[in-house]
Amino acid sequence: MTRPPTVAQRRVIDAADPVTGRLRGTESQLTALVKRGLAFRHPRPPHDHFLTPEGHRVRQGITQAPEPDGPGEAPASTGTASTGVFAARVGGEEAAADAGPARRREVHSAWQGLLELRRMTNPGGDVDRPCGWERAHLVRA
After folding, report:
1. pLDDT in tens, 60-89
2. What are the distances in angstroms from CA 23 to CA 2, 121, 136?
3. Phi and psi dihedrals of 115, rounded to 5?
4. Of the candidates 79, 94, 96, 104, which has an alpha carbon nearest to the alpha carbon of residue 21?
5. Residue-level pLDDT, tens digit, the chain, 141 residues
6. With contact defined as beta carbons under 8 Å apart, do 50 and 42 qualify?
7. 71, exposed or middle or buried, with CB in 10 Å at 0-12, 13-18, 19+?
8. Helix-helix angle 53-60:7-14, to 10 degrees
9. Which of 9, 45, 60, 135 fits 5 for a cystine, CB–CB 3.0-4.6 Å?
10. CA–CA distances in Å: residue 89 to residues 22, 38, 79
11. CA-CA distance, 110 to 102, in Å (whole number)?
12. Taking the model in full, what pTM does it have?
């Protein structure tokens, strides 16, 4: 197991944007977080750093430090994190899944993606009307 983040690195992780995971810190702090697998540097300018899913888990206190990556090993978790696919809640579930910050990020990301689909496919870039993809993929509620 890797050492836990230093106090300074922990402050950078805790100060990350709650939705996007954007990090602000010194270059050495950000580089150390990248080496530990808790952050990544975006390839496009301005090359900001963002938390990885493992970094979000450390921030939420679910894990203390990243586990070493092994072939075929995946962290055991429940909900959408285990499938890697966003799933809308339509009611009828026996128990609501975790409604914490991770779910809030998933919902926000899915909503932003849907708005982008609407903008790209509707005439004039309207985002207030459903697009063709939404009409073809109705969710039974």
Report:
1. 876 554 444 544 444 444 444 455 666 777
2. 21, 32, 38
3. -65, -35
4. 104
5. 467 888 989 999 999 988 788 999 999 999 999 999 999 999 888 889 999 888 888 888 765 544 445 444 444 444 444 556 667 777 666 666 666 777 787 888 888 888 888 888 888 888 899 888 888 888 775
6. yes
7. exposed
8. 100
9. 9
10. 27, 29, 11
11. 12
12. 0.52
Q: Where are the domains of the chain?
A: 1-65, 78-128
**Which DSSP helix (H) or strand (E) runs through 55?**
helix 53-60
Calculate Rg over the CA atoms of the chain: 18
Write down the residue that tokens 């206190």 correspond to: 61
Do 65 and 78 meet the contact criterion of CB atoms below 8 Å apart?
Answer: no
In sequence order, what are the beta bridge partners of 50? Answer: 22, 40
What amino acid is encoded at 19 in this protein?
V
3-state SS class at 22: strand
